[in-house]
Amino acid sequence: MRQYIISILFASICLGNRLDYFQQHVAYDIEVTLDDSAHTLDAYEKIIYTNNSPDSLDFIWFHIWPNAYKNTETAFAKQRERFLNTSFIFSEEKKRGYIDSLNFTIDGIKADWDYHPDWIDVAKVQLPKSLPPGDVITIETPFFVKLPKVFSRLGHTGKHYEITQWYPKPAVYDHLGWHPMPYLDMGEFYSEFGSFDVRITLPEEYRIMATGDLVNGEAEYAWLDSLAQEGDSLHALDKKAFKKAIKKLKKSGKKKGEKKNFLQKLKAKFKKEKKERETPILKTLHFHQDNVHDFAWFADPKWIVRKGILYLADSTRQVTLWSMYHPKNAELWENSIEYLHDSGYWYSVFNGDYPYNHITAVDGDMSAGGGMEYPNITVISKMDSKHLLEMVIMHEVGHNWFYGILGSNERDHTWMDEGLNEFNNIRYWEAKYGDENRKWIVNEFTQEKLGPFSVGKNLQFGFFEYAGYSSWVKKGDEEPMETSANAFKQRTNYWLSYSKPLLYTWHLLDYLGEEVIDTIMHSYYRDWEFKHPYPEDYFAYFKKFSNKDLAWYTHDVFYETGRVDYSVKIEDNEAVFKNLGDLTLPFEAAFYNKKKNEISRHWYENVKKIQRVSLPEGTKSVIIDPDQTLPDGNRPNNATSKPLAFTWVFDQPQYYKREIFWMPWLFSGNHYNGWTPGLNFYNGFVPGYDYGIGFRPMWDFLNEQLVGSFSASKTVYGLGSFYSSNFSFDAARNSGRTGAHFEFKGKRKKHLERFPVWKTIFNIDYHNILENAVDSEYYDSGESATGYAEMELYNRPNPFLTYYFRTAVKTGIVNSQFLRFNLQTNIYYKFTKKLKAKLRIWVGGFLDAIDLPRQYRTYLSGNIDPDFRNNYLFNRTADVNDASIGTHQYDIGGPSLHGLILDDIDKMLGVDS
């Protein structure tokens, strides 16, 4: 009895006090044959299902996810349509897929089954008799899968195969009951842990990688080892020889775009048919794996193979590393074994040792995202740089921990795997590259290969996550993280499940310290590996290992929405901290003397409105969040003193300085001014700022004078009834015109809805146009001012229909008297992938035209940029009198018919279809 009580107490501690915890067990035995000419799978499945729940079961929900690709009425297709993606909707039926030939038996007795009332990729299998707690049944069925083209995760591209979510799989039954769910593009999975024995039969030339280890696979491993030696030899070649070898490997496959005459095509057809009639030499490989909740496999006859070894820290156990990639991506994947090694190593350090025998990455064609994880193996889409490839491999390998080993419900609690995995991503990057070298290379050419002229050479990994998060949250359309994936109304909010937990957990690490976070993550991993944790189970460890009030993290971050915005000022020898945002987070502040040397730093908690703090002696400036871990959406107000700094074109923003980005402006000019080179300066505009200022001085070599422009812009969200309100001003001297433009642009839309969008625009323009700078037939010179108002509706109710309606008036204010109106409607409809229709209707005229400047007349060609907003109009003078303004250069507006035609009547009607 004493031992029993101790066991209950231990379980209570380990499982976050969930004494009701249980989990089912499934043992799969699957035999499958790939037909690579028909692109099908013929298979038989046997499952030993153990009911460890306290309930008797009368049925079992099964996921038969290949049916997601069967027609355009599936949940997958409807989600695609909801997010305006038509690639599957307009696909040919022969490129879609399905699963059939199901015939379930339970312990040898035929079982009735039917589809879910809403989803054809979920089936309900009735048990011949109730399955009581603790009992075991054997479920068997044949099944046949027609593989689709790769629309999402499952499928093929030619002879390249990505076999994922491919077999009938029982849904999870846990303390909340059954969790049947359809396959979705946006929204991942939740599956029972168990064991897999899978025998795959396919043509012998295929390289194949899968979940689990080969049983009696010595011959296959020997072949893969020989291929890996070839891969190593390939990458040992010098650059010239390497490129030559890769070119040869590419040619050994199908030559895309190769032109053939009729006889060549006929010969190729006969050759293909003959090859298909020949019986291919097949091989059968047996894979086994325990303690996983899914099984995926990938096959390709052309992959380059690489192999490596990972020794875990403080362990002699070795993990085999495999990478397989297409010849066309060989240079990019050169260091892929290093990426696999470092990912496995650091994730083991941060969370707990990797428990399986191999980590594999394969080069794929998956279209659902940058990469996709499965136990032991990940598939990676095309990447643009080695840094991006490392990031995606690292992220997908990390999913072996989150949700591979810590098997949370990805569909309902996406942040538990994506967000915590992203948090480990930034820890990896810092651990590997160091705090001062967290560089993030998106484009190797522009960021590294231009020497002193490289742009963005100091961009850091965390900045991209911060930029995406802060840019979106300030708009007010955020949804709580604790939202089921398919319930997100805005696709961006699903992607916040990655960045938001990363940023706030990164700040939490800064607040609690690395030792506490390591203790929490290791304990969480140790207690919940191969189990199904829920959010409350994760949060329990913060209460256990920290005595601080962390409700801002365990509740506010995941169950609420809002912005972080702290500011600081120095008043009367005090630092005045203000909370201008919606959330209350602890923050660190640093105090500096006049030489910018740090005096001290302190953490401040629970600053909900305002807090005054006496300055340490000698303080001249204060910075909130000196290490920039706080997800503050307005960082410039976090510092009291900001020295001037100049930065070439663009780089990691220095928020605590008055940073001016600059670049030469060489490719500008027009007929009147000639070549006008200069410099372009700007401040703001990037995430973390709520304004932008630009200044562009240029020299007019033709008239020997200074020209250029100044602009300023600020966007406010939630002002009055407007979703967003943008205020902008610019003044310019160029093209023989000195002028200014002020504009207000407000957008209205329903909260969390993308469409419809109502836009309201008001602007005032002032011009002083020199007489010799314009053609007097089309422009009046001298001073003038006009006003403009516009109402616009833009709607896209579905992927097929887009329509746009606009009504506007323009009036003279100074040295002119006119009132012009126009109505415009654009309608676009997409019937098929290639068949599209467009209808444009424009109606306009003048209610008053007593003193109408020529440039504001109506032209059938559109307009001639009367307010000088188009920087690409090169010539407004009369020097080239070939009507080039209207014939070769016209600005869309008005009827927009090609050719310059003057209008001497009051009303115009244009139809363009």
From TrEMBL:
Membrane spanning stretches: none
Peptidase M1 membrane alanine aminopeptidase domain span: 348-552
Annotated Pfam families: Peptidase_M1 (PF01433)
SUPFAM superfamilies on file: Metalloproteases ('zincins'), catalytic domain (SSF55486)
CDD domains: M1_APN_like
InterPro entries: Peptidase_M1_dom, Peptidase_M4/M1_CTD_sf
GO molecular function: metallopeptidase activity; zinc ion binding
Organism: marine metagenome
Protein name (database record): Peptidase M1 membrane alanine aminopeptidase domain-containing protein
